[in-house]
Amino acid sequence: MDVGVEVNAGVDNSSPTPCTHDFQVNCSNCRLSAICLPFSLEATEIDELDRIVQRSKPLQKGQHLYRESDDFQSVYAVRAGTIKAYRTTDDGREQVTGFYFPGEILGMDGISNNSHASSAKALETASVCEIPFSSLEKLSAVMPHLQRHFFQLMSREITEDQQLITLLSKSSADERVAALLLSVSTRNARRQLSATQFRLSMSRVDIGNYLGLTVETVSRVFSRLQKLKVLDVENKEIQILDIEALRKVADAR
Amino acid sequence: MDVGVEVNAGVDNSSPTPCTHDFQVNCSNCRLSAICLPFSLEATEIDELDRIVQRSKPLQKGQHLYRESDDFQSVYAVRAGTIKAYRTTDDGREQVTGFYFPGEILGMDGISNNSHASSAKALETASVCEIPFSSLEKLSAVMPHLQRHFFQLMSREITEDQQLITLLSKSSADERVAALLLSVSTRNARRQLSATQFRLSMSRVDIGNYLGLTVETVSRVFSRLQKLKVLDVENKEIQILDIEALRKVADAR
DNA sequence: CGCTGAGTTGATAATGTTCAAATTTAGTGG
DNA sequence: CCACTAAATTTGAACATTATCAACTCAGCG
What we know:
Two copies of one chain form a homodimer. Chain A is an alpha+beta fold.
């Protein structure tokens, strides 16, 4: 019963999915459970977790899950599609703080102030599981595995932010783009998808706003890597032709 | 009974403190408790927390608290001095991920992998409280306030990393340096220290490695801000002459 | 089939890096 | 306390990378 899960993960997601309104999905039968919040929980625990998870209807492309400074109530697990988290700077520019794929959790930056520190918007039709934080807290207190795992998820968010910090601080445009592509590749593989061929759900502008580069620079890097036969780029469709070369580009110097 | 707390916070910390080995400090009488881990806990809860906290002898300047890939056992609260957290890139360069002042918690990036994702080193004589994570987890399960507060601390770490990401991605050298100075200023004020006059415990190289700039650029920014009468810079001793102007520099554009 | 927004490409400019050297500060041993 | 040395900081000049501005191309869509 994987209907509704990763509906948009394939190569062809140009048309909105029929949306079967299959909300029967639960954590036990979700094939993302191994990489999502239920990871490391036992069957009975998963059922308990399942009781607090809320599944709502899909988000349309461009729709917001929450906005900066909204009251914080829940964290979210992506079930299908891609969510972009971003902040808007004083002068109106956008800093993308992360792209979230199925099985990944977002919204944890809202805990500290009880208000979201970033906005979250669907880059394509997407569905998410909402996990009310107060329920999660209560459940964590009685489920050590869950508490541990959630601490780990937050910690991972920290280490990933630190990686991005390092990338922005020390790497050239080529290195940044290569690192992003490798990250997408790795995360695809975790979900049993191709590590070498995929469709980027984000625009070049989004990539630039994530990597601290202008669209033009991002575009030039793609062209360059294409010319070097490291990638085959056809609009958003990416094929990694030489992953070793891409790794070399990613940590040149 | 504040002996041993913030011993090095004053203007003159040129000679190592006598180190009275006063480890009698506990959370209840620590004047940092209002901004540190005990925040929001009740007296009896603070006593319980106190029982798991380990206080050891001070770190000398340059000494490591932990190193990247060390086994993760504990998080640490800074009691006195400054701790620099940093990662070393493949090519040997250093990315500073944070400076930690008294009352601040570090080491949370180690939770996700059970090994530290960064190294931590004392920038001056420093002392820390060690909080074994497994004890903290157990205590959190029975003290909702503590669990909540620790989630919030981790979340704050995330939002602060996101701010740094934005700074690195969107800001000029002047803006970055100004933002750092304002951050130091604010955090000093939180500890009842001067918001306008302080000694920077970190070197220009450290600042550069934090802000993604070379030493030369950092130095030039200091000179420029000095010439503009925004700062008075005398080596590590900084006086903010015009904090409004500094704020304008920090969010120019 | 033309329109619109996304993406690409080129030329020029700006910001910060790199390399080199001078200068100041901090530490060490007599 | 002073002389000496190493380390940190500052300053200058040339260079490199990426941003900016502008024009063009392409894909998708009514």
